[in-house]
Amino acid sequence: MTELRYVYAICGPLDAPPAAEAVGVAGAAPRLLHHAGLTAVVGDVPAEQFTEKALRRNLENLDWLSETARAHQAVIAALASATSPLPLRLATVFHDDDGVRSMLQAEAERFRASLERLRDRVEWGVKVYVEAPSAGQDGAVSAASGSGSGLRDRLSSDSLASGSGRDYLRRLRTERAGRDDAWRRAEGFAQELHDALAQHADDTRLHPPQSSELSSSPGRNVLNAAYLVSRSVSGTFVELVNGQADRAPGLRVELTGPWAAYSFSTPPQERSEAQTAAGGGR
């Protein structure tokens, strides 16, 4: 069976592979490949799953994608417990060890600069949600955003004549204004929180808010940020997040981490170039 080389991350000099319990993608134990003073953490994976054509098919298979992502993350997490790895994107694959060495040689300067920037640092994720509206508010939204037939039923000529239709519209406007005001306060809190956390971080990334339809978390996401934080000040960073969360009634603050610095693998100006380079070995 033909095998390809799956690359999880780039590290500086490293003596031992990740912990044995970190089973890699396709069940293959990760190993180390040294070149140009750098270490690539690689695994041997079956070609029938990782050729360009096979990947296009498999990336549409949610079960395969979930299993592969979990294995990828397990290896990165094991590395992060011992060093500060430079994670590569999911399914970065090369034909053989020589292909990986060529990549290390070509990207050595950029990899070294990135590893220096990430050294002794971890990534923390912070999200802020506006709590989901009450059932009564849901009803108002549904009535306002439906096809219009429900609203017409409520606003019959008899209702308008008696004034109940005007009362309904007034109540609807009041509820909308209340939600808009709550969202504005939430956005203001999110900005203040981000500004405070950024003072304790070496770098930040503001990701697009998560869609409520695609997220398992209830409520509207108003902040979805990542922070590159020195291990030495991570305790202070966590305390700051927890302290700020206590003063945010009606909002939910979620802290995740510490992670390997996925969001900071390359400086912003290099991100597109790096993604192209990482994928070019297939």
Concise overview:
The protein has 282 residues and is of the alpha+beta class.
The total beta strand count reads 9
Biggest beta-sheet profile: 5 strands, antiparallel
Strand content: 15-25%
- Shape annotation: globular
Rg: 25 Å
Mean pLDDT: 80
**Terminal residue distance:** 18 Å
**Unreliably modeled segments:** 134-162, 268-282
Number of helices: 11
Assign a percent range to the helix content: 40-55%
- Which secondary-structure class do the elements indicate? alpha+beta
Note the run of SSEs as H and E.
EEEHHHEEHHEHHHHEEHEH
Considering the chains and any ligands shown, give keywords for the structure.
282 residues, alpha+beta, four-stranded antiparallel β-sheet, 46% helix
Task: Describe it.
The chain has helices at 47-50, 52-58, 62-80, 97-106, 108-118, 135-145, 149-154, 157-162, 164-198, 234-245, 271-279; strands at residues 3-11, 31-35, 38-46, 86-87, 93-94, 121-130, 203-206, 220-230, 251-259. With 282 residues, the protein is of the alpha+beta class. The two termini are 18 Å apart. It contains 11 helices and 9 strands.
Topology (elements, then pairings):
Blueprint (H helix, E strand, L loop, with lengths): L2 E9 L19 E5 L2 E9 H4 L1 H7 L3 H19 L5 E2 L5 E2 L2 H10 L1 H11 L2 E10 L4 H11 L3 H6 L2 H6 L1 H35 L4 E4 L13 E11 L3 H12 L5 E9 L11 H9 L3
Antiparallel strand pairs: 1-3, 1-4, 1-5, 2-3, 6-8, 6-9, 7-8
